[in-house]
Amino acid sequence: MNQERSALSAAPASANRSRSARLAGRRFRQLFSVTVAVLVLLVAGLAMANFSQGPRLASAEINLDAAVTRGNARLLLTANQPLAEVQAGQVAVSPATEVSARVADRALTVEFAGILRYNTVYTVTVTDVASITQDATATLEYEFTTPDVDIYALQRDSRVDDAGAKRPDTVRRTTLQGRGDGDIVFSAPRIQQYVALENHLAAVTLAEDDTATLEVVSFGGGDNVQVPVPGAGVIENLAASPSKTLIAYTFTSAPETAGRRYDRTPFVYDLTESSGLPAEVTGVDGLPMTVMDLRFVPDSTSLVVQNAGQTLFLIDMLGDAVLTPLGEHDEMRGFVPGTRALVVADPDQGSTIDLADGAVTTLDLAPSLLEASAYPGKLVLLTEQGRYARLFLQETGDSNQLTYLIAVTDAADSSVAFTPASDASRVRDFCVSPNGQYLAVETIPAAGLGDDYPTLPAFSGMTTTLVDLDRGTSSRSVSGFLPDWCG
User: What is the DSSP string of 186-211?
Assistant: First the structure.
């Protein structure tokens, strides 16, 4: 009886468990089906949303250091899908900058005209960007900040210390955003001039008898390297191609030199050359050459020299070294910022030489507002469109006093960009920054005393003021002269 009762009670329990299992399985299948359906709907919805949103920005690239040193910087915007063509009118840049645009698959390249400003936040906005696969459009936006820039200046010191020895001259380095005169990167008893490279500084120093030595200093530390020269003499026209580690200069032998005499003979020194020896730059048929001036083509290994007959030659110092004549001109005035257009001057006109094809373009400059009332001096071309800065000397009520002014002029406007803080101060020289944004103006105070250096003499208390050409402000100055922009 007990066994029968146990068997009868076990049967309903087993049936109940089977029913529960069937119900659980049914609920699982229903839940799974619902979940799959929801996921399908979500995926479809996301796909539709993605299809209707248009392209999105996946990444962006720009060489910021190159953007403030070389023209035509490129911003590469990569989207998440292939793009339809984009017109320049769809691209807006703040601050306003002329650009062009082109598309290749998912890549949109925005190319800037000219060089960008230092220490500036740029916002690039591209509107109505469409994919080649659907009609939905979107706006792509990217923001970047350009870097600061190093500023160098030479400070000469004619004072003596407690032991009666002359205090050393120094080259200091700071930045636009920095304060004060910066850090000393080189010092010597008498520094004639210097040029700054990316990782080095080259300086001409003078002995007590005024003979010159050329030294190279590494910013990474280590001993100074003395560049071999052909004996006692004078080194002038020091120039550099900073990114190419090349230095150029002319050497003139001292009067008492025996043997070969060098007369403003050009040399080029390659910091990476294993021999450690400079190379003489020779003229036609390999004959020695005397030069009046020399300059490196920006961001290149090519050198432009002007010989004693005023003929200009273009020479690739690391190439075939063939001399390409550029014609006869009275004066070289440097390069238009951000270009390889060489500015030259003759008695009756100025012009530019395109070093890509040798084409000469005569300058037709608009008159300055000071032209009728002041004496014109040095002129610096700021753009290929004819914008220029010019130094003027204007008479004051005191017949023995002249006021120094720098005016900036283009086809639409002319205005005074700089006047010294004191009417008694004088402008020694000025130049434009490599990106065309600033003028560097050297001023001599009324009480400045000459230092009697035989080459590139200067004055005590000199100051270099940086003038923002677009904003018309001069809120930054450093002690000293010969900023590296003017090298």
Answer: EEES-EEEEEE-SSEEEEEEE-TT--
- What's the pLDDT band for 8 if we cut at 50, 70, 90? very low
CATH class of 57-145: mainly beta
- For the chain, give every residue range classified as CATH 2.60.40.1220: 57-145
Query: Residue 66 pLDDT > 80, yes or no?
Result: yes
Q: Which ranges in the chain are annotated with CATH 2.130.10.10?
A: 237-363
Helix (H) or strand (E) holding 98: none
- For residue 367, count other CB atoms closer than 10 A to its CB: 9
Q: What is the CATH number of domain 237-363?
A: 2.130.10.10
Enclosing H/E stretch for 44: helix 2-53
Rg, C-alpha atoms of the chain: 34
Task: Provide the residue count of the chain.
Answer: 487
Residue 31 confidence class, pLDDT cut points 50, 70, 90 = low
- Full DSSP string of 104-160: ETTEEEEEESSPPPTT-EEEEEEEEEEBSS-S-EEEEEEEEE----EEEEEE----B
